[in-house]
Amino acid sequence: MTGAKDWRELLTWSAELLARSTGADLGEWNRRVRDTGITDEPALRRWLAAQGVTGYAQMLLVMERFGYPDFMLASADELIDAQYADRPALRPVLDRVLAVVATLGEVTVQARKTYVSLVGPRRTFAVVKASTRRRVDLGLRLADEPGGRLEAARSIGSDAAAVRIGLHSADEVDDEVVEYLRRAYDENLPPAKP
Prior knowledge:
The protein contains 8 helices and 6 strands, in the order αααααααββββββα. The protein is α+β, with helices and mostly antiparallel strands. It has a 6-stranded antiparallel sheet with strand order 1-2-3-4-6-5. The two termini are 37 Å apart. 28% of the residues are buried.
């Protein structure tokens, strides 16, 4: 899955955010955290908040102190392989969707623990999730209401998807699905500059 991104990019960005917002780098903050002697996560979160460290920077320091979840240390290929390990017949569906989005324009593929986000120049426009052993859900950020092949998206890993299309094989990624992907991409581009 060449070019797919994983959590490491977010961790690097979080460390940069921490340094920019506090003036101290990750090493210095790790020292400060150790020096507190705090041994439980809620207490550490309270202490960090009192220091003005919140959001992603706080998440990073908590994981630095108490350990990273395995999925945050896995490569994009490892994350995706794990999603399809018990449903290999569905992997061609993801591969076909990725082949289609590669033709749309600038797209970043972000592998997460249970799904793959497809991010355009502005924001996530689609997600792909092996929801069952027989179905991959293609979630789309579209203004369309459910109807026809479009169903209401229910918790497919991202708030980005308003509707979804259930896909059982790569052959179902047909012209209609390609058009929905193209529309989702186009609807989520940055506004044109005057």
